[in-house]
Amino acid sequence: MPHDVVDLRSDTLTLPTPAMREAMARADVGDDVWEEDPTVQRLEGLAAGLMGKQAGLFVASGTMGNLVSVVAQTRPGQELVLDADSHIFNYEVAGSAVIGHVQTRPITTERGFLSPAQVAEAIRPRNIHVPATGLVCVENTHNRHGGTLCAPEEISAVAAVAHGAGVPVHLDGARLFNAAVALKRPARDFAADADSVTFCVSKGLAAPVGSVVCGTRDFIARARRLRKMLGGGMRQVGVLAAAGIVALEQMIDRLAEDHANARRLAGGVAALPRIRLDLARVQTNIVLFSVDRPGGVEELVAGSAARKIKIHAVGPASIRCVTHKDVDEADIDRALQAFAEITRAW
Ligand code: TLP
Question: Ligand 1: distance of its center to the CA of 322 in Å?
Fold first, then answer.
């Protein structure tokens, strides 16, 4: 059955699979605030195993996972070092500042990843005038840089510098499995030197809700208290965790299809007039491009919508398309056909 609407706005729009619905209906549940939900415990154990960490914590969203990770590992008045285009800095409603009383230190990078030298330079000296550096964050894959990825070794190199200064590292791995599949490396390699890691089951892995935070038992105990403080202590939430288990057991390997579709889309988009797209940056399931024509973004978004293709402007001159399991090759070709019609006169 061809899809009526082709939705390229985000992989968060994926619908749960029939296997997920089935698992949700059958899930054994208990009160998770009492730590009595067996399905949540299974998901957390599975996640911790995949990340090579002692423990996991199921949270409502990537935003909540990042927030509890930041707050659990910093003290008020400390500084959080991160890329200037990071999700935490741009799209998490300043939670680190509001809840954690942490100052962010955004650093501009070329493809979303701080180099070890940049981290070394950003870490504050001991000095009565300056804040202490509390945490370094890495985002992989990188959303605002268009799904770019970094290798496990790059994270380890950054962590070595941070740890040398006594500073922990958090990995915002909302789309970590996309990086793992693209580089054919186990997810745990990326998390090896991160003190905490968050990944989402609700994006390309297609579960309806949720992320898992992983780290040491002690860190997870602190994160659990913070989750409760934020109102994220959920009760018979095994019905949601059940879908997360299916996501981890069945949906990781197929991310390769999304990456192939992203390359197909990018190849077509790059050939359109007045479009700037760096094909070397199309490394996973995100296609980011800019439109070099006043009003061009609006024309493309509206023209696509009129053809039942949903795309998303992420800046006055840029558009992001995200591939996922509810978009197939035929949908990509339909989107390319629409873009060609809209830009024909450009
Ligand atoms: N990203 C969403 C939007 O918030 C922009 C998307 O559609 O891409 N880290 C990264 C790298 C993310 O891309 C996101 C979500 C999050 C964290 C937050 O996850 P949620 O949406 O579950 O809070």
Answer: 12
Residues of the chain with CATH 3.90.1150.10: 6-13+254-343
pLDDT per residue as tens digits for the range 170-201:
999 999 999 999 999 999 999 999 999 999 99
Rg over CA atoms, the chain: 20
Q: Is 174 in the pocket of ligand 1 (CB under 6 A)?
A: yes
Residue keyed to tokens 């793992």: 180
Where does 85-206 have alpha helices with state H? 87-91, 95-98, 116-122, 152-164, 176-183, 187-191
Integer Cα distance of 218 and 222 in angstroms: 7
* Pocket test residue of 7, 10, 11, 12 for ligand 1, highest count of atoms within 8 A of CB: 12
Alpha-carbon gap, residue 288 to 143, rounded angstroms: 10
- 124 token code pair: 């504050």
Whole-model pTM? 0.98
Q: Ligand 1 centroid to 111 CA: how many Å?
A: 18
CATH number, domain 18-250:
3.40.640.10
**Where, residue-wise, is CATH 3.40.640.10 in the chain?**
18-250
Torsion on CA atoms 237, 238, 241, 243, rounded to nearest 10: -110
Q: How far apart are CA 157 and CA 10, in angstroms?
A: 31
211: closest CA among 223, 222, 198? Answer: 198
Cα–Cα distances (Å) from 66 to 171, 173, 186, 333, in that order, read: 9, 9, 22, 36
For 276-325, the pLDDT digits (tens) are 999 999 999 999 999 999 999 999 999 999 999 999 999 999 999 999 99
Query: In CATH, what is the architecture of 6-13+254-343?
Result: Alpha-Beta Complex (3.90)
Local mean pLDDT, 10-residue blocks, the chain (346 residues)? 93 98 98 98 98 98 98 98 98 98 98 98 97 98 98 98 98 98 98 98 98 98 98 98 98 98 98 97 98 97 98 96 98 98 96
